[in-house]
Amino acid sequence: MEYRYFKRDISWLSFNYRVLLEAEDESLPLFERINFISIYSSNLEEFYKIRVADHKAIASGKMSEDGESVQAATELVEEINREVNRQLEERIRIYEHSILPALRRHHIIFYQSVAEVEPSHRDFVRRFFCEEIFPYLAPVPVTDDKVVSFLRDNRLYLAVRLKEKNGWNGYYYYVMKLPYSKVPRFIQLPGEGGNHYLMFIEDIIKANLDVIFPGYEVDCSYCIKISRDADILIDDTTTSRELIEQVKTKVKKRKTGAVCRFVYDRAMPLSFLVHLMQAYHIDRSELVPGDKHLNLEDLSRLPNPNPSLLAVHKPQPMKLTCLDESESIFRYVEQRDLLLHYPYHSFEHFIHFLYEAVHEPTVREVMVTQYRVAENSAVINTLIAAAQNGKRVTVFVELKARFDEENNLATAELMQRAGIRIIYSLPGLKVHAKVALVLRRDDHGHKLTSFAYISTGNFNEKTARQYADCGLFTCHPVLVNDLHRLFRVLQGHPEATFHRLLVAQYNLIPELNRLIDREIALAQSGKEGRIILKMNALQDRAMIDRLYQASEAGVQIDLIVRGICCLIPGQAFSRNIRVTRIVDTFLEHARIWYFGNGGHPCVFLGSPDWMKRNLYRRIEAVTPVLDAGLKQELIDLLHIQLTDRRKACFVDGEGRNVWKSPHPQSEPVRSQYTFYNYLKERIETDKKGVSE
User: Fold this and answer.
1) 16 contacts 547 by C-beta, under 8 angstroms
2) Burial bucket for residue 446 (CB in 10 Å: 0-12, 13-18, 19+)
3) What is the pTM of this model?
4) How far apart are CA 287 and CA 185, in angstroms?
5) Parallel, antiparallel, or unpaired for β 338-342 and 195-200?
6) More exposed terminus of the chain, fewer Cβ within 10 Å: N or C?
């Protein structure tokens, strides 16, 4: 039987559509729903900059790494645009028929056009425009034969068509960049009768075009934007110094990359659109019709003028009673492994761990990987303090982390000036592992208990409050030694053998195959074969084939995949596989793998998804969870997520999001909040144990 697979990018669009559907959930706080429209729009922008831009380049003759043909790339871009257009209709429906009326019910009137502005606000709109906006506008003429403006990536422009008042000499065209850096996108107008009023800056400009163009009649005006190819190509086979210079140079060129989409108000007349296409050399394949208001990722900054309207409420990070400021994480982990779940647990515990390394006299060396670094990072500041306190600190910085290249480089240079040893990118590979190592010796140089930390998420305080991740502290000597070997690999010693740690490029795929084979053998012998895999993306066909084979052998498989899933469930070869997708308050980001092993389960956590890039072109690290209690904690998390009936859906054989029907006898489980309460109860139990 021939196996089949979903197209990667069509599957991703299905995930992003699921994000959009959160904006329709009336049980959520209103501004949380609005934020999901922002997330949906931001996701789509990056998707066009990277994925669609790559397909368009292949359609234009660029060599494909994956063997995609010109025709296939062309057809895929067309399919993507059709699906995006369909989703846009849904986005407009949700925004206009659900979000705006909900705002109005909470006495927030959000004007969507000049025509909606009440007479009582017109003087304010005129005055605000003249005093706050007009000084920053610079209209630029657009003619067929000469373009004197460059459309910047992802910036909003207003395109205006004029004609003379006293005669007909054809149309005149202008574009104006919205003054983002000078004036907010959303303007609050004076309140009236208990109502609050908001307005888009572009609508205020449209209402005052006669001030900008005296002597002309404004025929029409529409917003436009361009998305540019942001996938910079870096030759990482060079020296570190050459790599740094490449990053500095090529990141600057990202803003001037090739056009990958031209988004315009779909109400724009065809003749107007054609004029802009000719002037800016826009190909028809780059056209993506939009709504009258573009760049709705800005909705994350929509002000809430009604103090009685509840803001977005999220569970607040908890601190473990066993790890308060007076206690030693080192001493705790010497007794037993420690598992933290972010953002339910406070990321301050990890900072505390590093801070303890700064001041513990027996700590000789600290090693950390950095993939995406927070600005003004407490992690970086603590590492600098460790170096200044005489510790040998080594940080591996991945310069090829997309969209974080500049920040990572600036942070690396800051650390280097403070005496930290910096290692940059490996040739031909990205380092995506999220690991830290603290090595200890006594005054005579003898080894003492050392500590390893393996995580599913970055060492980033900001994302640790938004992404659902987990991290394991252990002093298990085999894992500590394995992690030490991994850091030696990062330092240029590629020959290594790992005993318990699973590392991509070394033993990860062979061990995954062995674990799957064992479940297949159990099922074939009449016993239960069981696999549960939680990850962000499943795309590698070789590993998908292994899951299909396991399903055919009778292994029961549950996949909890947030984003891309190229495995097709519900087919003859996948009849024992179910795919669950969860989208809720926090971004599900953890990678947790469960293999039943005949009643003696093996559980792993780590950094990789089952994508080609993770398995074959990156350094990734996965640890087995050896502590029985922590293993059960992760199993409980998986089971809670599989019973979610509020924010979980199945992905069906067509790639659609199919809501799970609620259990008739019980309150529907909302897994993120259920697991938060699960962890909270464990903390309360620990408190009672201490007090008794």
Assistant:
1) no
2) exposed
3) 0.93
4) 24
5) unpaired
6) C
Hunting for tokens 């499943």 — which residue is that?
A: 538
From the candidates 432, 446, 476, 663, give the one annotated as an active-site residue. 432
* % pLDDT > 90, the chain: 74
Helix (H, G, I), strand (E, B) or coil at 352: helix
User: In this structure, what DSSP letter does residue 345 have?
Assistant: B
DSSP per-residue letters across 455-472: ESS-S-TTGGGTEEEEEE
All residues at 6 or more sequence positions from 497 whose CB lies less than 8 Å from its CB, including other chains? 485, 506
Residues with Cβ within 8 Å of 293's Cβ and at least 6 positions away in sequence, in order, are 112, 200, 202, 223
Nearest to 659 by CA among 21, 10, 6: 21
Q: Is 432 designated active site?
A: yes
Name all domains of the chain by residue range, CATH numbers in brackets: 8-301 (3.30.1840.10), 321-499 (3.30.870.10), 508-691 (3.30.870.10)
Q: Where are the alpha helices (DSSP H) in 371-476?
A: 378-388, 405-417
142 in Cβ contact with 224 (< 8 Å):
no
**pLDDT tens-digit map of 86-99:** 999 999 999 999 99
pLDDT higher than 60, residue 279: yes
What is the spatial order of strands in the sheet that 186-192 belongs to?
108-111, 195-200, 186-192
CB atoms within 10 A of CB 414: 16
Alpha carbons 397 and 459: distance in angstroms, whole number: 12
**Cα 266 from Cα 232, distance rounded (Å):** 31
